[in-house]
Design a protein that fits this description.
The protein is mostly beta strands. The chain has 2 helices and 31 strands. Helix 1 packs across helix 2.
């Protein structure tokens, strides 16, 4: 579709140049006008907005109107997170072929100044206020070759105690079909920070072809994972997430993920972020972050630990071996297991999420972050070790895998990695000591659910029966479509 569109645009330009004396259709006029504006100061700019206290945030569309060189009337529309809209206007004349400097937009609620180079680049929005509150607006030009998709959203901090959600807005430069760049806007301690990110690994969802699912992460994609820095000492914030684009109406595109703030090597704070959705793509059915004793799971044996390297327990790391180390921890606690049979339990145990009502859903999605205490060159998973995420519609008689980890098939001591085809041999992404996201999904149809059960159970089953054979997981999210 993209190649076809570019072909149409190219033919329109050639047609316009070769038949100047012939009248163009309205569609041809619109296309040639839009393309002419792509390299000028006139046109459509999209942005993300927040008040510094995070009470208000918005998606912004700024229309710089210059169909002739002295036409008045430029508009800025703010679509707030609750759906309410505000409009600010400017009646200063501009020339579309020249740079714009300090174009003033005002209304009863909003004021700001807008500047941009003559080619539509280097947008600068300053002196932003909303209802008298200091604010921030980040914008870029949305063109036929590089459209802008903007999202408002929030983040929370798991370890910070009771607090309101704070602004985490995202602006995507591109059409959502492949690698893209991100600009982010985040409030922290009554300051607004700007950062960058990338999108890659996009693929059509195997269950629902209306969804394109992409990986999203902070940084430049070249090894620097810094999303932005905060404070006078330049402490770094990193984030990783998942973008879902919906290709049909109503648009329920969304981004969800995890963020990490590090202060040196001794202190880390973290949390989750998500976009505001006018329409929800996936309904949350169960969520477990292992942060407190209010849990949504059961275990096949009582949780235990010997304080060192034999454990099967929800933990914050203080009651398992000091040599066990993970990074990119979300919050303070997670579930972890190692050498499961050493304290009298059987070698295979599970964490089970039971009686999930799926009567209204045709597809179920499982997301979680996983890690393994990386032993460097002495990786210790054997061919009998595995971790599997499985579902059952019949009360546990039949279990079907949707996500699995195993070693590379060697009899002893190799690294665990994702088993993408469930044959007991790892062939995908390696597990490391850094928590990273993985996903599994399945359909609720006559083949998978022949008894038409309204409930499903999902378990994380572990077979780890020796020292240094371990797993940890967190932020289990089960959603339905």
């Amino acid at each position: 579709m993209k190649k076809l569109l570019y072909g149409i645009l190219s033919s329109v330009v050639l047609f316009a140049c070769s038949v100047d004396n012939e009248e163009l259709t309205p569609d041809q006029e619109n296309l040639t006008y839009e393309m002419a504006q792509d390299e000028s100061a006139a046109g459509l700019y999209k942005g993300i907005f927040t008040t510094v206290d995070s009470e208000f945030r918005a998606k912004v569309a700024i229309e710089i109107n210059a169909s002739n060189e002295t036409k008045y009337g430029h508009t800025a529309t703010f679509e707030m997170q609750d759906g309410e809209t505000y409009t600010a206007v400017s009646n200063q004349p501009i020339s579309h072929s020249e740079a714009i400097e300090d174009l003033v937009f005002t209304s009863d609620d909003i004021s700001f100044t807008f500047s941009v180079d003559e080619n539509g680049k280097n947008v600068l929005v300053e002196n932003v206020t909303f209802q008298g509150v200091e604010s921030s607006l980040l914008a870029k030009k949305s063109t036929t070759k590089n459209p802008i998709v903007n999202f408002t959203g929030t983040y929370n901090c798991v370890e910070c105690g009771p607090t309101t959600d704070m602004t985490f807005n995202v602006m995507v430069s591109g059409d959502g079909t492949g690698p893209q760049t991100y600009d982010t806007q985040m409030n922290f301690n009554n300051n607004t920070y700007f950062g960058t990110g990338i999108q890659n690994g996009c693929a059509t969802d195997p269950i629902n072809s209306d969804f394109t699912i992409c990986n999203a992460e902070s940084g430049d994609g070249l090894g620097d994972l810094t999303g932005f820095t905060v404070g006078s000492n330049g402490y770094t914030v990193e984030w990783i997430g998942q973008m879902i684009y919906n290709t049909v109406s109503p648009d329920c595109s969304e981004i969800v993920g995890l963020w990490y703030f590090r202060r040196g090597t001794s202190e880390q704070k973290s949390g989750t972020f998500k976009t505001d959705e006018t329409f929800v793509c996936l309904d949350r059915l169960r969520y477990e972050d292992f942060e407190d004793t209010t849990v949504s799971y059961t275990t096949t044996t009582p949780e235990f630990t010997d304080g060192t390297t034999d454990y099967f327990i929800r933990t914050n790391g203080s009651d398992i071996g000091g040599g066990v180390a993970f990074s990119d921890i979300s919050g303070t606690s997670y579930f972890a297991a190692q050498d499961i049979d050493a304290e009298g339990a059987g070698p295979i145990q599970s964490v089970v999420f039971e009686n999930i009502d799926v009567s209204l859903y045709s597809a179920i999605y499982f997301d979680a972050i996983f890690a393994e205490d990386d032993d460097g060159t002495s990786e210790d998973w054997d061919d009998s070790d595995y971790v599997r995420v499985e579902y059952s519609f019949d009360g546990g008689t039949t279990w079907t895998p949707i996500l699995a980890f195993a070693n590379d098939g060697s009899q002893f001591n190799t690294a665990p990695q994702e088993d993408t085809d469930f044959d007991g041999v790892g062939d995908g992404e390696f597990l490391t000591s850094a928590f990273q996201p993985f996903r599994g999904s399945f359909e609720n149809n006559a083949t998978n659910n022949p008894t038409n059960s309204t409930n499903v159970s999902i378990r994380i089953q572990m077979s780890l029966n020796s020292g240094d054979e371990d797993i940890a997981f967190d932020n289990v999210l089960i959603r339905g479509y």
